[in-house]
Design goal:
SAP18; about 10% helix; about 160 residues; transcription corepressor activity; disordered C terminus; Ubiquitin-like (UB roll); five-stranded mixed beta sheet; alpha+beta
Length: about 160
């Protein structure tokens, strides 16, 4: 009897057939200052100016979105660049938008939030994504001037 190859595929709970399901438009607003846009910038029919339009599916991960933003933003490709994601959605009781941080990724470093999907955050049509990008030299500078990576004096005997 010939050998039998067994192929095991890990299937995500919320995965969809991207060949059969039409993607939706996700309007993404990117800030390179390391801070999210103010939620008031989304009120009264306004949006921030730096918009990316991404066609995607609800099973898209934060890592996938990071990769798409890096394609159009060369500065964000540096290892250690942080991407902070926030969902911007309309309030159901008032004519304003709300913002909720949903996760972060870092270029070149695998993280626990990389595989979270848009479906995990119950994104709906009409919601926006706000992404704050922080270059590695900026967030390293915030550690403090007296911070040292060498953990003490190298000349000290052990």
């Amino acid at each position: 009897m010939a050998g039998v190859d067994v192929i095991i595929e890990e299937k995500k709970d919320d995965s969809i057939d991207r060949q059969k399901i039409c993607p939706f438009l996700l309007r993404v607003f990117v800030s390179s200052s390391g801070q999210h846009h103010k939620v008031t910038e989304y009120n009264k029919g306004n949006t921030p100016t730096n918009e990316l339009q991404i066609y995607t599916w609800k099973d898209a991960t934060l890592h996938e979105l990071t990769q798409l933003v890096k394609e159009v933003n060369p500065e964000a490709r540096r290892k250690g660049t942080k991407f902070s994601f926030a969902l911007v959605y309309p309030d159901t009781r008032y004519p304003i938008y709300r913002m909720r941080e949903i996760g972060s990724t870092t270029t070149g470093i695998k993280g626990s939030e990389d595989l979270k999907t848009l479906g995990n955050f119950r994104i709906t049509l009409g919601d926006y994504m706000d992404i704050a990008i922080t270059p590695p030299d900026t967030w390293n500078a915030n550690r403090g001037k007296n911070y040292s990576n060498n953990f003490g004096n190298r000349n000290r005997p052990f």
